[in-house]
Amino acid sequence: MPILRLAHLLPHKVIIKEGINMLKSQEVRKLAPEMDPLRMGMGWKEEDLTKPQILIESTYGQSHPGSAHLLNLAQKASRGAYEAGGKGALYFATDICDGMAQGHDGINYSLPSRDIIADLVEIHANATTFDGGVFLASCDKSVPALLMAIGRINIPAVFVTGGVMDAGPDLLTLEQIGKYSAMYERGEITEEQFTYYKHHACPSCGACSFMGTASTMQIMAESLGLMLPGTALMPATCEDLSVAAEEAGKTAVALAKKGVKASDIVTLKSFENAIMVHAAISGSTNTLMHLPAIAHEFGIPLDADTFDRMHRGAHYLLNIRPAGAWPAQYFYYAGGVPRIMEEIKDHLHLDVMTVTGKTLGENLEDLKKNGFYEKCDIYLKKTGLKRTDIIRSFDDPIGTNGAIAILRGNIAPDGAVVKHSAVPKEMHKALLKARPFNCEEDAIHAILTHQIQPGDAVIIRYEGPRGSGMPEMFYTTEAISSDPELSASIALLTDGRFSGASKGPAIGHISPEAAQGGPIALIEENDLIEIDIPQRILRVVGINGEKCSEEEVQRVFSERRKALPPFKSRYTHGVLKRFTQTAHSPMAVTWTKPNPKSLRYAALILSPCTTQAFLFQNSPCIYV
Hints:
Elements: H1 24-31, H2 35-40, E1 53-58, H3 70-83, E2 87-92, H4 98-101, H5 110-127, E3 132-137, H6 142-153, E4 157-161, H7 176-185, H8 191-200, H9 213-223, H10 239-258, H11 262-265, H12 268-281, H13 287-297, H14 304-311, H15 329-333, H16 336-344, H17 360-369, H18 372-381, H19 387-390, E5 405-407, E6 415-418, E7 429-437, H20 440-448, E8 456-460, H21 474-481, E9 491-494, E10 506-511, E11 528-532, E12 537-543, E13 546-547, H22 550-563, H23 574-582, E14 604-606, E15 613-615
Parallel strand pairs: 1-2, 1-3, 3-4, 7-8, 8-9, 9-10
Antiparallel strand pairs: 5-6, 6-10, 7-11, 11-12, 12-13, 14-15
Helix pairs in contact: 3-10, 5-6, 6-13, 7-8, 7-21, 9-12, 12-16, 20-21
């Protein structure tokens, strides 16, 4: 497959250093005399010691299909680095699987794992100095984690995503399992049918084949300019992906020799491009947690309101599940990220730099000439579909107002997020009765046992970052969206988050969260909830079934707050204790405040959904 190679690097963007001894790794070798013998103990040759040192960091592990195949790609990247005159070193920071963590308390570890992976990669990169890196990951937390780490360590970097798995029989994909699980629980399908779906939904390695968080973040990595053009979200079984990994290794060496750091490529304009692509693909709402965190590591301010502003009027083009019709492997067949960018290029910054050493605009022109689209067409032809069946033209969009909105009101003074492109039109404006639950388990039980009726607003609280680690509500949203009676007549509101596979009337990231005393904690049974997505409103407009003024709502909230018991975390030790004690409310963009009892610790505390941090003073460097 044609891959854009590193043709040139603009001199004003780089500090050109003559001579291999000017590489950082060679400077550190002089300070660490044990480094050479230790490397030679691993089988390195003497000539390897003076080459540009390339970190090959992946989340390889037998943890799930998105990471199980990354070792081969990492080895390909290392081979590419060697062929370009560098020396690759394989490091691993294995990730967990949100899918395997679903349905039990394991999902509470999902979001904290992102920051811990980023920490580990930072340690790998800085404890042993490298001149450049190739970073390989596929999935929900691993891709943003490595992108965050790239921003922190700021070395020449190329990203390789592990692609997407094939669809199963009859184009079965994993996000449908939530629907079939709810149908089985309701007695609508047999155990034999349900078992068949479970055993055939994941026929290969790669990220799950829908536009969830994993697929979205793979696309974001290319949109930021850190991937070779056209290489995001390839089918994991496609040989093109191995070629891309090897070329990434060569590119990393070239960038290292020229001294082009990640921060020379990734700018505010790059993030704005990524947000416009996000709107065009109707990407996961979890991107609102991840892109700001990545931007923070690059020293770039980015908040949720930027997403709302840029999504307004944006054309939504991608007909891929869960909101669309086709599995995500078809995305590459239709031309991938470059095709999306071609359709919206009048709204992109085409002058941003990329890892090829060329601008985005130059890359897009080169792809028209080097056979990229012709190769994609060969794959597409086998599906019997046209390109526009998968990626619509800008002038014939699926929607014209982006995919997400930030809502505010007396329930969410700091904001909440909704993927309105996946919400039935009749639910864009609604007046509902509150049905509050203090955990997801109670809510899903009520839905599956038909205790929830049309016109209800299911409220799940104490599931935010400080409440329980901010797990995703995938099975709850699937229980709603798979029920024809409820899918267009009720809404789900939570201070937690959703799976990238979620669809239907779901509003998440409500801030401040209940565990911090946010107004969502004050809602009681039968309060009236107004949702107005076009006007970006989410608020209580009535008490106990009766409409009333905002002043009356605030008076009642004040009385209820006096009786609200203080939140007590169930976590008394370990990662989740540390995370829930220091994390921000879901939509907050503020500096955290130190815990006076924790001043013996020194740590950079990253919020799960914010771009800011606090550095504890005068203490050993322990992550808390």
